[in-house]
Amino acid sequence: MEKRNVLITGATSGIGEATARLLSEKGFNLILCGRRKDRLEKLKAELSSKTEVITLSFDVRKNEEVLDALSGLTGKWRKIDVLINNAGNAHGLDPIQNGDVADWDAMIDINVKGLLYMSKQVSAWMIEGKSGHIINIGSIAGKEVYPNGNVYCASKFAVDALTRGMRMDLNPYGIKVTSINPGMVETEFSLIRFKGDADRASNVYKGLTPLKGEDIADIILYALSAPAHVVLADITVFPTAQASATIVNRSN
Ligand code: NDP
Ligand code: 8X3
């Protein structure tokens, strides 16, 4: 069977990086994206013995950069079979009255507008080919609001709404749209949220076994392995120690 081309945003760490590693062994060619070029090149060097890999370094917040990067794709790379909209982060965890406007802009621009910019261009190509699969990485924060999560939760609620809307709009063209909504996954996520405060970041996972990027990669592969007539629409996944956005058993 011909290999499928998968484009992963946010492939330089965490969930995206783990997904790149797994899919490199499962019959996919990789288009790896992120801002940190050095990490992209290192991952490309590591995975190129397993599959074909190219890298695109751009900031998803900037539509001109998105369009420029995608327009550089030529030949067979222009056929993107799978788009994984994974790039995203939380910035800060503050009550609304103390929120930092730059943090709010970052979350809305990356998590929502970046996903839109990517999806517009790639879905147009998928429509031409009348096939494709878009996987949006949402969050439990897109299903439940939690204290101080305000704008991050709003950005992930937007991802939830966009996933449902995209599934409707792309339905006539046979394009699948899936959302995966994880609870706590130990990646660089908390380090970014707490602006490099490693102690505060590691406290988030204290007393429990969190999910790993590899756990989400397994679920992505499962969604991509479904037969043509099956779409996994909406998957929520927690570590076993977590029961909701706010209920976590830290007895381990
Ligand atoms: P990481 O911080 O480890 O990875 C985030 C990725 O997003 C990096 O590769 C980063 O690449 C990329 N990224 C961030 N900003 C931009 C930007 N402006 N332009 C391009 N790429 C960008 O976190 P995770 O792996 O945990 O996060 C991946 C997704 O999973 C996010 O959407 C997050 O909201 C979601 N999620 C995470 C959970 C968790 O607990 N960890 C739970 C639920 C959802 P670079 O900096 O090189 O550009
Ligand atoms: C990441 C999970 O609970 O920190 O989306 O919002 S949470």
Describe this structure as you would to a colleague.
The protein is an alpha/beta fold and 252 residues long. It has a single domain (4-237), classed as NAD(P)-binding Rossmann-like Domain (Rossmann fold). Helix content is 41%, strand content 15%. The protein has eight helices and seven strands. The chain has helices at 14-23, 37-47, 63-71, 101-129, 150-170, 189-193, 198-203, 213-224, and strands spanning 4-8, 28-34, 53-57, 82-85, 132-137, 175-182, 234-237. A seven-stranded parallel β-sheet has the order 3-2-1-4-5-6-7, with helices on both faces. Helix 1 (14-23) packs across helix 8, helix 3 (63-71) runs parallel beside helix 4 and helix 4 runs parallel beside helix 5 (150-170). The longest helix is centred in the middle third of the chain and has 29 residues, at 101-129. The radius of gyration is 17 Å and the shape is globular. The chain starts with a strand and ends in a 15-residue tail after the last strand. The chain binds NADPH dihydro-nicotinamide-adenine-dinucleotide phosphate (NDP) and 2-hydroxyethylsulfonic acid (8X3). NADPH dihydro-nicotinamide-adenine-dinucleotide phosphate is lined by residues 9-16, 34-36, 59-61, 86-89, 110, 137, 139, 182, 184-185, 187-189, 192, 213. The site of NADPH dihydro-nicotinamide-adenine-dinucleotide phosphate has 29 residues, from helix 1 and helix 6.
